[in-house]
Amino acid sequence: MPPVTPIDSTHPTYGTTYVTGEIYFHVTWADVKLHYPVIESFVYLGMNFSDEDLEDTWYFQSAIDFAHYGNALDGVERPISCVTKMQLIDFVSAAGLIVEIEKAASRRLGRL
After folding, report:
1. Residues facing 17 on adjacent strands
2. Are 30 and 108 in contact (CB under 8 A)?
3. Counted domains in the chain
4. Contact 24, 17 (CB under 8 A)
5. What is the spatial distance between Cα 68 and Cα 49, in angstroms, rounded to a whole number?
6. What's the CA gap between 77 and 70, in Å, rounded?
7. Sign of dihedral through CA atoms 83, 89, 92, 98?
8. How far apart are CA 57 and CA 61, in angstroms?
9. 82 with 57: CB under 8 angstroms?
């Protein structure tokens, strides 16, 4: 079983367990009303790899980059995203992505 990284109960993503090697979705918004999500796919690599991290840091690699060049931690120098606890709320699982898309649709229809 791959290593997992749970989130503590004070964080908005509490209940999400980040599993090394799994895909997560970075959701941002094209508009301030949160009607139009912008979605990018990332592979979770792990957390707290650098002694230079001043706080807990989660590491993600673009799924496109991961698919084409392999894991950035396997000696292939590739760009990665270093994410702090406050930024982590934008990285959701497939189930979380479905929720975000459904909420956006409801907002567009005036239900939320």
Report:
1. 6
2. no
3. 1
4. no
5. 23
6. 10
7. negative
8. 13
9. yes
d(CA 39, CA 91): 10
Burial zone of 100 (CB within 10 Å; 0-12 exposed, 13-18 middle, 19+ buried): middle
Provide Rg for the chain, Cα atoms. Answer: 15
- Give the range of the structural domain holding residue 19, as residue numbers without chain letter: 4-108
Return d(Cα 98, Cα 106) in angstroms, integer. 12
- Residue 38 is part of a domain; what is its CATH number? 2.30.30
Q: Which amino acid is at 70?
A: G
Tens-level pLDDT at each residue, the chain (112 residues): 454 454 444 444 556 789 999 999 999 999 999 999 999 999 999 999 888 888 999 999 999 999 999 999 998 789 999 999 889 999 999 999 999 999 999 999 997 6
